[in-house]
Amino acid sequence: MAVKPLKVNLKQLLESYTNDRAKQRAITPVLKKPEVKRELAMQIIDAIVERTLSGKDNNNKDFKPYKTHKGQPWKDYVNSLIFKIYKGGKRKPDLKLTGNMLTAIDAVKIGLNDIEIGFNDKQEADKAEGHVLGTGGHGGLPVRDFWGLPDKKTMDAILEDVIKGYNTQRIEAIEILQSEQEVEVD
Question: Would 1 be classed as within a structural domain?
Answer without folding.
Answer: no
